[in-house]
């Protein structure tokens, strides 16, 4: 999957107007200068050769060299861990909030709280991350002054205080909590007709105990798969959120790479993000296999 995705990235950069040679050329460069730079960057070679060279170097940890002559691994050394921190915090909070809201709604089926949570979850997921970001900036920064509007970085390239993470994390958590709450609620609804769950209700157990002790374990495989698939949306939304909050992650790196038609740098960002998503999907598969009693 990653190999196909990276091939698509190289092909997409190739069809964009312009190339890295023209994007990085200086004012006053002649056509001969641009052509020489195009040869230096290897852009006069067939696309499949450039992609093959990049892929064969990948197992050694070499992500190639950017159009400006810098190692891609060096360019991503600082911003990618920051994006992982942002995405991990948002992922953990999303899981906790989704499980809590989904279980709460499932313990009150058909009641007002169930309908309120369902409508709120749908509305939250329908709002894009950048709209949530603007709303958070207005309320928590411009109107109240509780939180800084932008992220300031120290000499190490990291945010100077942890409070600067709050709004970017919330901007990612709110839409994904809406999506995953619906997944949790649907998985628990599927378990409601299971014999052991109906037997627990007939035994007079409290609704919350029936949900947590009897319905939730059977719903976990579906919940794990659903939550894992939202990892890509979290990292994708992080690009827009990081740009709005001036967060020092891969969002600004990717935006600059696309503007500069820098295929190795774009592929390096996609590779790192794709690897992280693949690991989460693998973890979800392992949870599902364990819960379903599958043997490897």
From TrEMBL:
The keyword Transport applies. It holds the Pfam family BPD_transp_1_N. SUPFAM superfamilies: MetI-like. The chain crosses the membrane at residues 84-104, 116-140, 160-179, 219-245, 265-287. Keywords: Cell membrane, Membrane, Signal, Transmembrane, Transmembrane helix, Transport. Residues 1-20 form the signal peptide. Residues 80-288 form the ABC transmembrane type-1 domain. It comes from the Bacteria. It is a multi-pass membrane protein. It is found in: Cell membrane. Belongs to the binding-protein-dependent transport system permease family. This is ABC transporter permease.
């Amino acid at each position: 999957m990653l190999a196909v995705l990276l091939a698509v990235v190289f092909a997409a950069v190739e069809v964009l107007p312009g190339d890295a040679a023209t994007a990085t050329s200086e004012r006053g460069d002649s056509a001969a200068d641009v052509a020489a730079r195009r040869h230096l960057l290897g852009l006069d070679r067939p696309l499949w050769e450039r992609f093959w060279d990049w892929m064969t170097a990948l197992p050694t940890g070499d992500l190639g060299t950017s159009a400006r002559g810098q190692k891609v691994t060096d360019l991503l050394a600082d911003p990618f861990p920051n994006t992982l921190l942002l995405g991990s915090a948002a992922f953990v909070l999303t899981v906790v909030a989704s499980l809590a809201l989904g279980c709460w709604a499932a313990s009150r089926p058909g009641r007002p709280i169930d309908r309120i949570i369902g409508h709120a979850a749908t509305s939250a997921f329908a709002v894009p991350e950048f709209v949530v970001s603007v709303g958070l900036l207005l309320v928590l920064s411009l109107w109240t002054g509780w939180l800084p509007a932008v992220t300031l970085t120290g000499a190490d390239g990291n945010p100077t205080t942890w409070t600067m993470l709050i709004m970017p994390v919330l901007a990612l958590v709110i839409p994904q909590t809406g999506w995953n709450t619906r997944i949790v609620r649907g998985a628990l609804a599927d378990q409601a007709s299971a014999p052991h769950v109906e037997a627990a209700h007939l035994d007079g157990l409290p609704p919350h105990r029936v949900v947590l002790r009897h319905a939730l374990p059977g719903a976990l495989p579906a919940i794990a798969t659903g939550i894992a698939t939202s990892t890509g949306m979290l990292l994708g939304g992080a690009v827009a959120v990081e740009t709005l909050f001036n967060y020092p992650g891969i969002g600004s790196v990717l935006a600059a790479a696309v503007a500069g038609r820098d295929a190795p740098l774009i592929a390096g960002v996609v590779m790192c993000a794709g690897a992280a998503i693949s690991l989460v999907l693998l973890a979800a598969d392992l949870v599902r296999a364990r819960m379903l009693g599958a043997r490897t």
